[in-house]
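User: Need the bound-state model for WT7:
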Amino acid sequence: MPNDLTPPSDAFAKSAHIDAETYEKMYAASVADPEAFWAEHGQRVDWIKPFTVVRSTSFAPGNIDIKWFEDGTLNVAANCIDRHLATRADQTAIIWEPDDPNDAAKHITYAELHRETCKMANILEDMGVRKGDRVVIYLPMIPEAAYAMLACARIGAIHSIVFAGFSPDALGARINGCDAKVLITADYAPRGGRQTPLKSNADAALLNVLHDCKVLVVRRTGGQITWMEGRDHDYAELRLEADDHTPAAEMAAEDPLFILYTSGSTGQPKGVVHTTGGYLVYASMTHAYTFDYHDGDIFWCTADVGWVTGHSYIVYGPLANGATTLMFEGVPTYPDAGRFWAVCEKHKVNQFYTAPTAIRALMGQGDEFVTKYDLSDLKLLGSVGEPINPEAWNWYNTVVGGGRCPIVDTWWQTETGGHLITPLPGAIATKPGSATKPFFGVQPVVLDAHSGTEITSTEAEGVLCLKDSWPGQMRTVWGDHERFEKTYFSDYKGYYFSGDGCRRDADGYYWITGRVDDVINVSGHRMGTAEVESALVAHAKVAEAAVVGYPHQIKGQGIYAYVTLMNGVEPSDDLRKELESWVRTEIGPIAKPDLIQWAPGLPKTRSGKIMRRILRKIAENDYGALGDTSTLADPSVVDNLIENRANKG
Ligand code: WT7
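Assistant: Bound-state model below.
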């Protein structure tokens, strides 16, 4: 079954931007002569000063240096807005669907988007923001989030969005990490009928920020907030006076566009840096081709702008292409499990892009939630964030897509800026669970995990690396280029290491098998086990903690925490709840452990290293495969852990 090939229908292939033959030709050209290929496709954005150098990229040890279109200049906001005004001023740029279906949706035209972005840019300038300064955005999914991103891009400020589900501590760490001059937030974030108090979270976060950081507050609900005169600025009030013609700054292609913090296998989240020219070329090109976006289509990516998916496929990619992009404030299950499909019907969505975890959750609620809506405008379905299991794929295909919509399973990462491995829907036959083939210019390789050598046979299994750069690649870790090299280029020299394992089948199709490092993928969101561990051990009653992933029906992976308590502290259900809410406040709800096991001891080598391999196996309920335990300092620890596995079943 998993190897079933579903080719694009003739009708789809015929009207698609890229058919099978074009894909083969363009892909071959893109790797045979990348300079020529990207010189041509670099033209899909408007340059103020055209580039003459296509790229200078090096993955060489000690000299990791990635530049695309480096002597060109451009402005991202001008590309996403101004250049469309002549032909699309009255076209809807953003459809905003609020959390509560009884509230009115908004249709924001390109002309309006231009005015609002200019006003926001003008407000930021008045607050002292200059080219190169950092602005942290902590907002609900409201149009102002897009205005804020584009306003930063317009004046050359670097934005860093923090997902509204993150805690005050996580927000504070990110404000400090990039030394932000301004924080843009809202009073409250409505989501699924509940409200997150963003402003009070921001107030708490700023207690840990020692440098001067002003706050711009959007009133989303009008709910009560506290106000600090001098620091806090009222967006609604400033907007009335703000100029709606703020010039777009001329930016170098390699000037940073944004920083986005993401979890890794060690330490604190790192600030992934994306720059201006290459990122925009790549985001817009993948948006057009992967989703086969055509003029006039309504495109909906259900992600939050707090993740890279929202950056590339709600805002930058679609708007650079003059698209109509839908922005949804709510959740898939509010007011009921039919919300996604109600919104698809209501706004006549043509391309729909979501995560497997949402599909699995909705699949369990019954088909009636889908079938009662008219989904005949849907032409294509997309998946992102984790491997999609064939069962979910088939349900998505038949029940949601009516068997007529190609499914694009897009593999990529915060670091990659845009899709790297994905079917192009008019060109590539799909297989449930496979991300299929590389995008143009992308050269995936499968390395043997131990020797680091490239497996050249078509069929291969190992770690997934990239042999060469692509324009959307991250350029550095904010403030720590060494960490950039260490994280991505040091395990396998000369390659970009993705952190994922993969298999290449006899047809040359790629199957992502999941992270091979200490990162877990919870509902398509990345969580570093080290981060959760350090949150746990920060609790006074916890002596030691080890966190691993385990298979979870809905989330893909769940968070499994082994906790050793301080001497004299007794385990209890209350303490379990206390630790859960502790982690929620330290990091955010997405980091809350799904299972906590009290562990009197952890399996360690004689040199004191925790053997996570064993902990993973126990969490997976896979005791037959514990492997060699003879190097453990105290092998009996393992028996105790097996005996007491949480939620044993
Ligand atoms: C990790 C990146 C980039 C979008 C959202 C997540 C996993 C992502 C797929 C897919 C299998 C996938 C990988 C990757 N992943 N897409 N289609 N099939 N796995 O971004 O938080 O940077 O996470 O998500 O493990 O490394 P992210």
